[in-house]
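ping. complex inputs:
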Amino acid sequence: MADRSPNLVNSLARVNAISLGVSCSLLAAAALGGATLVLVLQGGRPSYHLGLLVQFFPGYSVTGGGALVGALWAGAVAFASSTPVAWLYYRNLLTKLPEDSAIARPESLQSAVARLKKREFAMAIGLLTGTAMFIATILLIINHQPGKPLGPHLKLLGHFLPGYKVTWVGSALGFVYLTALGGAAALFVAGFYNRIVGANEK
Amino acid sequence: MTEPQDPSSEKRDQQRLIQAFAHLDRHALGLSCGIVASIVLFLMTAAMTIKGPVPCMACLSKNALVHKGPHLELLSNFLPGYSVGWGGAFIGLGWGLVAGYLIGHFFAGFLNLHHRIYLRVIERRLRSEALSNG
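pong. complex structure:
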């Protein structure tokens, strides 16, 4: 008897990871492009703080053209960061099929509603947010110009994350904090989502 | 010639396909993202409000006080009425729900649309292959 499962799992995980990456990419592009355009239309000083994103996205500015550059950057970063995490999530999901989920019952593709696996979803989102925080802190340290303050705005996160600073140790601490907080938020999102879907099905 | 597949393995593969392409409930994801976003924004605003105002270093008056969250307050550029204070925290609760709902709703919509397009393409390819094979 032939077993196609490993190939099938890999193919499905790849397709879903790309789907999710594209969705995140579109959403991030729309969010940053939209936020930039809102500030451009308002005009004046409020644009200064969003303009600081140029430290992470070269070429970005709070202008009409900058909105396009920002949308491209946000889309690219969102795709590059979410696709590997989504691949891990879907591989795990498809390898260990849950016994109690909707898929245990014969259902068609049209009517099946996805459930989120809470633990795996939390791990994926936690890893994503933690890594983003780590990279953002590291980028500020690497790109720091002598004589200028180091990451004066990112370090304000220290108000919420005790001990966090824009330093090498701070980047590790930020990774731990954001992994825990992102994971906790994702756990709640998955929990609420599964409950609402369950309630709708009754 | 392809080998016949184990029936239980075939059933698992069918389950995998359904699991992989099951659609996300847009309303449910929107609502759950909205609830979490509103709680996060409320807690951040409340934390800044509890810490209270600090002396203003850049103001002309020596006794002037400013809130610790001037940067968080910049969210009012996008969320009208929002401010760092108890009133703003509750307005932020509402805005967080709206913004989170929109993010979750559109994310699920994009993902479902991508799945639908992919399945449509596969279906067409299989049909044309079946036709060409007679």
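The mean pLDDT of chain B is 84.
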